[in-house]
Structure formats: structure tokens, C-alpha cells
Amino acid sequence: MPNDVFINTIRGLNIQQQNLFQKVSVAVEADLNGAEDQLLLFITGGAGSGKSYLLKLLVEHIVRCYAPTVDPLLKPKFVEVASLTGVAARQIFGKTLHSVFMLPIEKGNTMTYKRLSGNKLEQERRRWRYINWLIIDEISMVSYENLRIIHLRLQEYKNNDRLFGGVNLLLFGDILQLPPVKGNWCFLQPSWFAAEINLWHQFSFCELTINMRQQNDAEFIDLLNNLRVGELTTSQLELLCERRRIPLTGEFADGVAVRIFPTVKQVDDYNDLMTAENSKLHKVYTITAVDESREVATYGKTPPPNVIPRDVNNCG
To answer: Which intervals hold domain DNA helicase Pif1-like DEAD-box helicase (predicted)?
Structure first.
């Protein structure tokens, strides 16, 4: 980011964003001065509050602050940015949490954490040598179980027994949006971890309430805020219903626009419909999946039926 753009972007922050930016700046300065203080912060807010906008600015700021401290020939990385899904990670120019922390694939309702060793551990420790900041977006989709594994993995990466290996951690997201596919909410510690420290309770809280996207449309802002908490007024519901277009045509026609459905059954029904329609125009090839074991003792063999999920959504 050019210097003039960076400076003008900072000047354009609202008061809440400025306060958050200053809070992170103080933590960066303390870390550069060798302080042991650690910033664990949860940043939330509704749609249009500027969370993603601020996230990208903070990444730029952190890199600018740390870059002069390390020889650029080492190609150091100072901040890791990640999200649970590939789509969300791409929006913030980051990676998936599974790729960064080698999160286990959920089998049933359990996740088994396995420590790293050997070359893989040394490789990750080298990669994290200069990384003192982790930013996670869409935290609502991250289960407490995965948050705990991230905490343990960072302790391995940094060879440090402090919380999250002593790494400063910023969590961005709206808890009123998508929940974890499996596991508990990130703020609900399962009873079987009750003897451990509650990780979520270690985070301080910052809420962005100023809407930066629809500042000139107070009616629309109120509608979005009420929809976020499920408390639409009759007039707001009527306004939304006026926007319904059935049948959908033009740029919203079947096969043109992406559709979002509330249930898996509706998704499957629509996909089946589109497959049937496409088969009238194109030849459809059916490829049967073959399940093979990747375990050392049974490599290449067909697993027994009881370990193959019936639901494709449970497949790794």
C-alpha cells in the first residue's frame, strides 16, 4: 500500500476505528520494546461497521512497524491472517485455519489433537520465528474445540507455554452470524475442558457500532440492525417482501445467479434440478468415488462401511 493511501486511510477512520487502531499500535510498540504484555482482543460489529476494512489496515500497519527490525533478505512474515473457510480467507488475503494450524478433520463429534514432531515442527517454528500477531476473521464459525487446538498449536510453534504461545491475537466477526458447523460456539467452553483455563474469557471486547456503508440511509441501517437480532418490525418485513421477485428472470434467472437456501434439502433439490436441466444441453458423466484408507497399516485398502460417513457433509 503506498504511503499516501495508507495515511489517508488512517485519517478516514471513525472515532471507534481510531480507538481500536490506537490500541493495537500501543500493543505493537510494547512488543517491539520487549514487553511481555499480550493483546487478546475480540472485535465485533454488524454488517457495514468496517471490520474487514479495518482488519486489512491493521495488517498493513503491523507489517510496516516490524519490517525495519529484520533483514528483508530473510523474507520474514510478521502477521498471519486466517479464516475457517477458503472463501472467507480469500476476502482478507489470508489462509484457511486448517492449513495454518493443521486442524484435524472432525469425525462424528470429536476432534483428536496430535502434537507435531520432527521436521514438520521445526519447519513451522522457523516460519513463525518473526510472527507475533495472528488475526482470525469470521470467528463465529470457529468452534471452541478448534480455538483450543489453535492455542495448543501456537504453543508448539512458538515453543512457549503462555496463552496462544504468547502471540497477540485479534478475532474479528459477528457472533450473530454463522455458527460452527460442528462443535460448540467459540465462547462456550465444553464441560470436558472445565479443568482448563477458559480461553474465551481471556479476550477483551471491542464493538464497532458506526455503520460506514449506508450512512445516508437511516431506514435501511435500522432494518439491517433489527434483522441481525431477529426483531424486524411489521413495516420492515413488508419492505423486504416488496423486493421479492418470483419468478426470477434476467441476471437473477436459474443457472445465472448464485442461490442461498436455508436448508440442505433445498440446496440438494435445486442442485438436482439444475443438473437435470444441464443434462438436456450437455452430456453428463458420472464418476463413482472410491474410498481408500490413508492409514499406514491399511493404506490403499477399502475402509469398512462403518467408518465411511453416510452424509457427504461429514466427509473430510
So the answer is: 13-235
